[in-house]
Amino acid sequence: MKYALIGCGRISPNHIVAAKTNNLDFVGLCDIMQENIHDKVVKFGLSKIPQYTDYKEMLEVEKPELVAICTESGKHAEIALNCIDAGCNLIIEKPIALSLADADEIIRKAKEKGVKVCANHQNRFNKSIQKIREALEKERFGRLFYGTAHIRWCRDFEYYSRASWRGTWEQDGGALMNQCIHNIDLLRWMMGNEIDEVVGMTDRLNHPYMEAEDLGIALIKFKNGAYGIVEGTTDIYPKNLEETLYLFGEKGTVKAGGQSVNKIEEWRFSDALDNPEDIIRMFGENPPNVYGFGHIPLYADVREAIENDREPYVSGEDGRRALELVLAIYKSAAEGKSVKLPLEACSAMDFSGRFGERKILS
């Protein structure tokens, strides 16, 4: 299967390793900055792979069957729609887009053209998350009461100074949209997806050089009667602390923790079908960074979805749901009131200027 990568920045090594592990036929590397391509060529031995600074030229010349989009978030939609027009299946890094209108158009056009779209929420493939999902699908929790997602990370001046688009409303959004959307996706997925209303608060406490928020807190009421809590920040000193997901039900309590919900840390069920100590020992991983090990199985799933003409495990619609929840938190925080779902129209750009001017990076 002919594969190409658009965007050779911070997350691209995970995609390159996943593509190579899944024996994809690498036909193109693209980035507007040639030095980004060079770094990956040297690191991963890709000197024979054609290199491009214009992705449209790459699509025309190489005609890839599968493309991964790893650019800044604000470019995802435009690139995705052009790739779909070229007949490419897609893996789109989170978030799928920065507006619901763009997400809807990606989903609509992909169906029209008969191609697959996967939103790159790779943490769904964590061993810990898969085990929790299995328990949920077997109804071991009984009635779900509530779940919580905590993302307590650090992003400093050096991180934002390396790319001027980071933390902007037009190209990125803030902590919730960038760093926290993976766990927000997991919470919504686990709690039944359908949401009644959201109450949110956001602020920019410690990053005057970004436009968007570095702290977001939200309460969520799901249509099934359960509740959710989101706490997400990049203000933790001096480094990433944890990312955790809790699920509380009438017959079960579970906690996934570690850097990126990659470890089961609590496992209690009334049915006593398994030994909690065994589960904690067996379903824990220790990835080198917060990106985890999920890209490889995500790529395997997408390849199989294309070959068997089925939806990917993480679909474009899933990506839209995660985006919608983040935007609902933004909207509630900006308006100072609860927001009902579904949202019909909303964009990160709707909140431009909310925290005032940012200090110029230098």
CATH superfamily of the largest domain: Dihydrodipicolinate Reductase, domain 2
The secondary structure category is alpha/beta
What amount of the residues lies in strands?
A: 15-25%
Proportion in helices: 25-40%
Topology pattern, helix = H, strand = E: EHEHEHEHEHEHEHHEEEEEEHHHE
CATH class categorisation of the largest domain: Alpha Beta
Backbone CA Rg? 20 Å
Write down the CATH topology of the largest domain.
Dihydrodipicolinate Reductase, domain 2
Strand order of the largest sheet: 13-12-11-7-10-9-8-14
Features:
NAD(P)-bd_dom_sf, alpha/beta, Rossmann fold, EC 1.1.1.292, six-stranded parallel β-sheet, 362 residues, 2 domains, Dihydrodipicolinate Reductase, domain 2, 14 strands, eight-stranded mixed β-sheet, single chain
Describe the overall structure:
By secondary structure, this protein is an alpha/beta fold. The protein folds into 2 domains: 2-122 and 295-314, NAD(P)-binding Rossmann-like Domain (Rossmann fold, 3-Layer(aba) Sandwich); 127-285 and 321-351, Dihydrodipicolinate Reductase, domain 2 (2-Layer Sandwich), CATH 3.30.360. Helix content is 33%, strand content 23%. It has an 8-stranded mixed β-sheet with strand order 13-12-11-7-10-9-8-14. Strands 3-2-1-4-5-6 form a 6-stranded parallel β-sheet, with helices on both faces. The mean pLDDT is 96.
